[in-house]
Amino acid sequence: TSGVPILDANGELLGYRGADIDITERLQSEQALRDSEARFRLMLEQVPAIVWTTDDALMLTSVMGAGLKALNRPADTMLGQRLPELLKDESDIAALMSMHRSALQGESLSFEYAGEEREYHMHVEPLRDASQEIAGCIGIALDITEQKNLERRLLQLSEQERQRIASDLHDGLGQQLIGILYLSRRLREALVTAGRPEARHAGEIAALVNQAVTQARELSRGLSPVSGGPQRLVSGLTQLAASTTIMFDIACRFHGEEDLETGDETTDLHLYRLAQEAVTNAVRHAHATSIDIELYQEAQQLVLAITDDGAGFSLGDKEHPGLGLKTMAYRARLLGGQLDVESNEDGGVTVTCRTPLPRSHSPSLSPQDAL
């Protein structure tokens, strides 16, 4: 409400002239905005995330969130700096700058970033002004370190159980079968010497036990495929190709540098399991007759590619992947990599996993300099 006095010629007050403006909607909007800001700040204080904005020159204009505690870096020391000034590793600068430049072109992108101590799921999209023009970028980084550690621990426990069963098969059941094989052969020899017709049956028992020994060894090797020296992954993939050729009577070949090593047993194990799953899918579901397994280093990445000449998959199969494809993609994500599955022009499928070299080969940027 506003008003002005009405005076006569002598300056005497005659009354007031005023107007009432209904500001109910404005007050409600202001309250809704305050409520929204309160909820947003509450979320940022509870969720291990960092939210930031930049201008069109990629200079930080705001940064906030409970995730800053893990970085041990005050927000006010980061404001007004351009993103490249906050990063040290050239590969990290190139990747993050590319994402933000794409956002300035109107794209929204999500990716995962792994530092030496913390891991983040990041999302960057355009920041628009009141006229819907792109004025900068807005991004959020969700700290997924604990989630990743739990996922790795679950897979580690699973692999430990596999190794325990493999050890039991090799050292327990396997040795007992070898003992039975030795005794059955001794029995056959004794029956042959005595001229007994049961010698034939003893020989059959020995042959069956020998097959059981071979199967126990193969099971043990399959449960614990990557062990030994630094080239354990190359050795494991070579054995996978050889055993696939023998078991399924198809052409399965491994191509890779004999001295290639990752220096990390976890990486070796995940890549082997990924290749094993891809080969199994190619044989059982795509009915492939030829499979090629490739392992090589490309810049600061390890590349594992499995190509087959099978039936391939339909678009619907790719949009609604089965458990095998999901498991392969999951293993790739655990390694900070990416899984691509593409149909080949001449038939078949190529499964490609690109993953960063383990930190022993490629040092990563510290999370203190991530944002």
Can you describe what's shown?
This protein has 371 residues and is an alpha+beta fold. It is built from ten helices and twelve strands. Strands 4-3-7-6-5 form a five-stranded antiparallel beta sheet, with helices on both faces. It has a five-stranded mixed beta sheet with strand order 8-9-10-12-11. A hairpin with a 2-residue loop joins strand 9 (290-298) and strand 10 (301-308). It is elongated.
Strand order of the largest sheet: 4-3-7-6-5
Strand fraction: 15-25%
Number of strands: 12
Write the H/E string, N to C: EEHEEHHHEEEHHHEHEEHHEE
Which structural class do you get from the secondary structure elements?
alpha+beta
What is the structure about, briefly put?
The protein has 371 residues and is of the alpha+beta class.
Identify the notable features of this structure and list them briefly:
371 residues; elongated; 10 helices; alpha+beta; single chain; disordered C terminus
Helix/strand layout:
Layout: E1 2-7, E2 13-19, H1 24-46, E3 49-55, E4 60-64, H2 68-71, H3 83-86, H4 90-104, E5 109-114, E6 119-128, E7 134-143, H5 145-193, H6 199-223, H7 232-248, E8 251-256, H8 265-284, E9 290-298, E10 301-308, H9 315-319, H10 323-334, E11 338-343, E12 349-356
Parallel strand pairs: 8-9
Antiparallel strand pairs: 1-2, 3-4, 3-7, 5-6, 6-7, 9-10, 10-12, 11-12
Helix pairs in contact: 5-6, 7-8, 8-10
